[in-house]
């Protein structure tokens, strides 16, 4: 028993010594990036999938749990693969050119995006739309910061909020099929299901009646 403990402690010391080696830092950063991508993807997707599945999906408990697990695994895997690819390409480019330049980041992320998120599926689609909204905000702020767009005299956020809500509800009412399925489900619950009731049970307590009366 003691021998096994000594071996384990020796292995841990060797691992810690390896982690302190500067020459392996880039490769180790790629490996930890993979780890962080997997963990973060699971943390983000699991609660979202849990809520959306039990709110809007039908089926048995087993089917729902399987759907949650599959969505969590896909998000976690894809994010881990992307971080691994991105950091690996960043390290490779920096090593080849002897320094880090802004184009390296764009190029590495383009390759990773193509390879990992290029498949058009619900998980990837949601991630891309999430990023797109933040990119638009970021580019808008950058344009003002660099002087390409004059600094607004008033906060433009109220106008942006009005236009976004106006547009998304117009799309929902008249071109619903253009919206992402989970957004359609959320808006159906909010704006369509609230038009239907039969008595106090499905007016205040439940969204829809489950009996046949």
From TrEMBL:
Gene Ontology cellular component list: peroxisomal membrane
Highest taxon, organism lineage: Eukaryota
Protein name: PXMP4 protein
């Amino acid at each position: 028993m003691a021998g096994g403990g000594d071996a384990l402690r020796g292995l841990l010391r060797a691992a810690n010594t390896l982690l302190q080696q500067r020459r392996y830092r880039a490769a180790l950063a790629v490996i930890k990036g993979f780890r962080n991508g997997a963990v973060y993807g699971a943390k983000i997707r699991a609660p979202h999938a849990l809520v959306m599945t039990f709110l809007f999906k039908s089926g048995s408990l087993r089917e729902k749990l399987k759907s949650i697990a599959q969505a969590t695994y896909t998000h976690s895997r894809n994010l881990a693969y992307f971080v691994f690819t991105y950091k690996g390409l960043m390290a490779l480019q920096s090593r080849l050119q002897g320094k880090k330049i802004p184009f390296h980041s764009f190029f590495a992320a383009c390759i990773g995006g193509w390879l990992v998120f290029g498949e058009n599926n619900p998980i990837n689609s949601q991630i891309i739309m999430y990023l797109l909204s933040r990119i638009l905000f970021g580019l808008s702020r950058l344009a003002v910061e660099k002087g390409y767009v004059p600094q607004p005299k008033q906060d433009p956020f109220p106008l942006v909020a009005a236009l976004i809500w106006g547009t998304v509800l117009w799309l929902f009412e008249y071109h619903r099929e253009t919206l992402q399925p989970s957004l359609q489900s959320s808006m159906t619950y909010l704006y369509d299901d609230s038009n239907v009731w039969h008595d106090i049970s499905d007016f205040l307590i439940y969204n829809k009646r489950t009996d046949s009366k």
